[in-house]
């Protein structure tokens, strides 16, 4: 079974029994019953218990939104602390490849290694906030790109 429920097969205007809801979402019957206890709207007055498709979709989407964590540009997400944290001492390593860059830092609270993917253009901006150590090819700024293309033409 997948870790997260699938939304793609749920029809919003259909009612599902618990086994049908479990099958269409890719989770177990036990999970659907737990969701009903946690607040998933279901018709439990008669047997079999029915769950409306639109209620199932909105419940799963609500769960997903509840797990999201918004980060400011100077924060990383620490998997051990399960919270947004700033890098210890403002020290960040930056590895670049192609169009992406990956920032690596230590959590200021628990010293766990944290990672954050960013676009090349943002490395220059974050260098003003953090003490960044670059590894790999240096990101090109717009001025550098125009000089490079001018040199290649001649």
From the structure above, extract its key features.
154 residues; two-stranded antiparallel ribbon; 5 helices; disordered C terminus
Architecture overview:
By secondary structure, this protein is of the alpha+beta class. Helices cover 34% and strands 25% of the residues. The chain contains 5 helices and 8 strands. The chain has helices spanning 18-25, 29-38, 53-67, 120-127, 142-153, and strands spanning 15-17, 50-52, 76-78, 83-85, 91-97, 100-106, 113-119, 131-135. The strands form 3 sheets. A 4-stranded mixed beta sheet has the order 7-6-5-8, covered by helices on one side. β3 (76-78) and β4 form a beta hairpin. The longest helix is centred in the middle third of the chain and has 15 residues, at 53-67. The N and C termini lie far apart (59 Å). 19% of the residues are buried. Mean pLDDT is 82; it is low at 144-154.
Largest sheet: 4 strands, mixed
Strand order of the largest sheet: 7-6-5-8
Report the principal-axis shape: elongated
Overall pLDDT: 82
Residues in helices, as a percent range: 25-40%
User: How far is the first residue's CA from the last residue's CA?
Assistant: 59 Å
- Per DSSP, what share of the residues sits in E-state strands of 2 or more residues? 15-25%
Element string (H = helix, E = strand): EHHEHEEEEEHEH
Report the uncertain regions. Answer: 144-154
Structural class: alpha+beta
By DSSP (H or I, 4+ residues per run), the number of helices equals: 5
Secondary structure: number of strands: 8
